[in-house]
Write a structure and sequence with these properties.
By secondary structure, this protein is an all-alpha fold. The protein contains three helices and no strands. The N and C termini lie far apart (57 Å).
Amino acid sequence: MFVGAVMSDFGSDPHLWSARMTGAMAGAAISLVYLLPQSRREAASRFVTGVVFGLIFGGPTGQWLGMRLGIADQLSSQETMLAGATTASLMAWWALGALTRLAARFGRDR
């Protein structure tokens, strides 16, 4: 059951890695659809950023999301990882995009 799971329980299980990779790639692809890139380089950069964030932060994000929604005890480890990796991957670009726009706006010499 998920409730007593800790991050070290998300070790090297191939099913969890498969869910993590699938979620990370799905989130990255969705982020490209929501806001179309202006070039191939931007698309590749955003996709790689999304996948990396999904792989790194998929577990903690899945746990946080499950607890926040009150369904953590009803999710399997694979579902938790898939949802977390997708959410982290999708949100990575939006957070970085917002920071980039803020830096562009306030970082210029006036």
